[in-house]
Amino acid sequence: MNARHRAGGTVITANRLPDGRVIFLGPGGWSEDITAATVATDAQELRALEALARQSVAVYEVVDPYPVAVEAGPDGLLPVKLRERRRLLGPSPGAETVERS
Amino acid sequence: MYRYDGWDAAFVRERIARFRDQVARRLRGELSEEEFRPWRLMNGVYLQLHAYMLRVAIPYGTLSAPQLRRLADIAERYDRGYGHFTTRQNIQFNWPRLVDIPDILEALAEVEMHAIQTSGNCIRNITSDPWAGVAADEIEDPRPWCELLRQWSSDHQEFTFLPRKFKVAVSGGLRDRAAVRIHDIGLRLRRDRQGRIGFEVLLGGGLGRTPLLAQTVRDWIPGEELLSYLTAILRVYNRFGRRDNKYKARIKILVHDLGIERFRQLVDEEYAVARDPDLARFAAAEIARIRPFFAPPPYADRAADAAASRHLAAIDGTFARWLRTNTAPHRRRDYAIVQISLKPPGGVPGNMTAAQMRALADLAERYSCGEIRVTAEQNLVLPHVARGDLPALWEALETGGLATPNLGHLSDIVACPGLDFCALATARSIPVAQAIGRRFADLDRQYEIGPLKLKMSGCINACGHHHVAHIGILGLEKRGRESYQITLGGSGGEEAAIGRVLGPGFGAEEIVDAVERVITTYLAGRRNREETFLDYLRRVGLQPFKDALYASV
Amino acid sequence: MPLFKHGRFVEDPWLFLADGEPLPSEGMIVLSLARPTGVEAPTLADRDGWLGVRLEPADPLEEVVPWLPRLALVALAFPSFTDGRPFSTARLLRERHRFTGEIRAVGRILVDQYPFLLRCGFDAFTVPPGPALRGWRERARLGPVYQPDSLGEVRSIWHRRHPELVSAS
Ligand code: SF4
Predict the structure, then answer these.
(1) pLDDT class for B80, splitting at 50, 70, 90?
(2) I want to staple B26 with a disulfide (CB 3.0 to 4.6 A). Which of B36, B217, B256, B361 is the partner?
(3) Structural domain of C76
């Protein structure tokens, strides 16, 4: 975890258009791995990220990108809000009849 | 069961071709998400918390063995090996990829299934009594009427862009088993003195943030006039329902704002001119065509061995309790309705693995004329089981983990997917349901408690029907944490009632104890075992429960 | 705005006037409902040339009904393609008021809505210029439908299953 990740801030998330999976915007493009995400720490950085995300919408890569506040968790970045945490972590253990592969 | 003719098949094929084209245009960027959304929803596709979700219709809750097997195939091929039965006679798959969905729809069409209008602001999948055709108190099988409505509402030219979703339920029994009072329109089948079939029409029910029970808008509409009358209701709604605020857009709000009298007057005026003799003739002709599909199966006379189950029950207590809780009287004395609980202790309410689906499909073919039903309480039904076959069936169900004898008891919990899957959720419901199921796993204790309906929803939208549960739990978010609010005294079906909120919510780690205290309060206060939870609550009100849950703090 | 009619794009002979614009002495004009029902009513009643009215979804239909015999076009506005009110309005115009002139969909509509619009009585569609035009040429078609429609133009599935009922209607 780099210093930026430790400080927390805002990342951009979306769903990938063809399969709907949760992704985060980073310097290398979109990734399912939040640790690869770019963390914006001020309004200007966030605007730049949002502009990039809009481009991805325009080329039909992603659906409905939006900003999510994150903080440093024990194992890396963790969204602040309950809903976004669940979205990152997936269903609770045992909430699917069949174990996740 | 209804079988498609060439036209039904052609209709579904055309719908899939159109959706395949829409998906392709979406992926090429020719449709924006906004432009794509209505078509995606009207084909049952949501974008949920982690992935797309596909909701497949089980029209009026009737399913054949090959159809259930096909659902198993889809679960394995495109999902994670299971499906989730909902409270509206649908099944949901949580992990399909958008690009695969047209193929999934083709696979469904091969067994005469679809996902048409399982979402969107249109007339949704028509629901009905899971005991249709076999219940002892039935006036007439409601399913031909449901099928008529399914066809009439599919791609309806006028009512596909309504202010909000529109749910219709049809009940054919003397007792309501289709929860007609919590639907936008509830239809209760009636027969007049001349023996003609018609309907009582109830209007404006629904749960969500403004829970309201439907009121009777018309005591009697002759069957063949039904479509014209519904056209009148929907036209009034389509023209005058609110479109500025999606929380006030359901028909119940319009009925509530105008008052039922004024609404009835508007509908009657519209009906007087909208009455369409052609539509009545087509409806009558279609009903006559459809009815034979729902003729009773060729039952073998099984009176000779009907006593077998009684004999086994006399010597085997485990079988006896299953017989008591999970079977119901069939209209034939030598047959029974068998209910399959999808609520094993610690399980996910309504979930079924592909292996279980296949096993149950086999059992349905062997013991239930190939038929399965889906209930609004997230359970399944084998509707035509000879009493003589009950011991063998029970043994097979036990092996498959499908014989949990808890129907209508505390651990037969209804729960929506909640924050584990749903994009709108404010709290999880599945882990809480699992924890309650485990806490009360002891069957003898559940039987001691008696009939009890516990239902929970992961947000105010109330898909888990918590408002009409004896004990309802609503998951909310309070200051970044999950908080669970208890409502007591709701009831679905015949004596429908909306539950009342007990007080402030409980944290995730407190809610199971809170439910336990509700139960112990009841057990300590009831007059005797005959006084059910609901009877007791209606006698004493909320106060003893408030005292038990909040007085100490 | 390109106009789609009878399966192809055609010239639009109509002039849509904004509320402040003066009335031309002749020509085919379309006005908002406020004008024929307002102070200009006498002028319009005497005017030569074809008249059309544009209705917003919330406009009261009763007000336009007396004018229908004088109208050759009713344009129904879609502020958004999810606003389904004009579907009902079109059916009422056709089926109840027996309006036989053009019913035109203007505003935001999608080609995917074409089968629904057509069966409610719309017979002309304005389409934004650009890529949507190709979509309309390729996709504006009708598949199998269940509901008989009182215009009698579409053979519904129910018609085909029960041909004996067709002559009766
Ligand atoms: S009640 Fe809320 S959380 Fe549960 S399924 Fe419905 S919308 Fe989702």
Answers:
(1) very high
(2) B36
(3) 3-141
**CB-based contact C142:C118 (threshold 8 Å):** yes
What is the CATH class of B414-550?
A: alpha beta
* Cβ-Cβ contacts under 8 Å, A60 against chain B: 26-29
Q: What is the mean pLDDT of residues C91-116?
A: 96
Candidates A86, A34, A5; CA nearest to A24 is: A34
Best of C89, C110, C112, C127 to disrupt the B interface by mutation (most B CBs within 10 Å)?
A: C112
CB B464 near ligand 1, within 6 Å:
yes
Q: What's the topology of domain B6-109? A: Sulfite Reductase Hemoprotein; domain 2 (3.90.480)
- The residues in B 363-422 lying below 8 A from A, measured between CB atoms, are 419-421
* A87 CA to centre of ligand 1 in angstroms: 15
Q: Please state the rounded mean pLDDT for residues C126-154.
A: 86
Cβ B422 under 6 angstroms from ligand 1? yes
How large is the ipTM?
0.96
The predicted pLDDT at position C132 comes to 85
User: In sequence order, which residues have a C-beta less than 8 Å from that of residue A49 and are 6 or more positions away?
Assistant: A10, A11, A12, A25, A38, A40, A67
CB B457 less than 6 A from any atom of ligand 1: yes
Structural fold of domain B134-292: Sulfite Reductase Hemoprotein; domain 1 (3.30.413)
Mutation probe of ligand 1 site: the residue of B428, B459, B468 with most atoms within 8 A of C-beta: B459
B539: nearest Cα among B551, B531, B547: B531
Sign of CA dihedral C126, C129, C134, C139: negative
Q: Range with the lowest mean pLDDT among B221-230, B236-245, C24-33, C86-95?
A: C24-33
Q: Is ligand 1 within 6 A of the CB of residue B426? A: no
3-state secondary structure of B185: strand
- Mean pLDDT, rounded, of chain B: 97
Rounded Cα distance, B258 and B522, in Å: 40
Domain assignment present for C83: yes
Q: Determine the CATH number of domain B303-399.
A: 3.90.480.20
Can B6-109 and B303-399 be said to share one CATH topology?
yes
Instruction: Give the predicted TM-score (pTM) of the model.
Output: 0.97
- Encode pLDDT of B428-487 as tens digits: 999 999 999 999 999 999 999 999 999 999 999 999 999 999 999 999 999 999 999 999
